[in-house]
Design a protein that fits this description.
The mean pLDDT is about 85. The longest helix is centred in the C-terminal third of the chain and has 20 residues. About 30% of the residues lie in helices and about 20% in strands. The chain has two helices and seven strands, in the order βββαββββα.
């Protein structure tokens, strides 16, 4: 069994096939199967071919929003802006305490 899984990948389909992180999915699959190495593949390459008369193939395309999680000893934020706001609040609290 061969399983190829990409998480948080950049995916594009311009009508000529799917590319994942800038590489053609067809080439990624063939490389993983061992039927392609770099630019070598196909007839006359000396590499094995792949054929199955009974094969399950699953393709799931599940677009996700871009997310960011920033965690440190002080807390966890879902964006840089949220972290900056939290830091600003902490600074203002500390500055207020210093003035008192």
């Amino acid at each position: 069994m061969l399983k190829i899984e990409f998480t948080n990948a950049q995916v594009e389909d311009n009508g000529y096939g799917l590319s994942v992180n800038g590489k053609e999915l067809e080439k990624i699959i063939s490389t993983a199967l061992g039927t392609r190495v770099g630019d070598k593949g196909g007839y006359g390459s000396g590499l094995p071919s792949f054929k199955s008369n009974c094969c399950n193939v699953t393709v799931i395309i599940d677009p996700q929003p871009v997310t960011a999680t920033i965690t440190d000893d002080e807390g966890s934020w879902d964006s840089v802006e949220e972290m900056e706001e939290g830091m600003r609040e902490q600074y203002q609290e500390k500055a207020g305490e210093a003035e008192s």
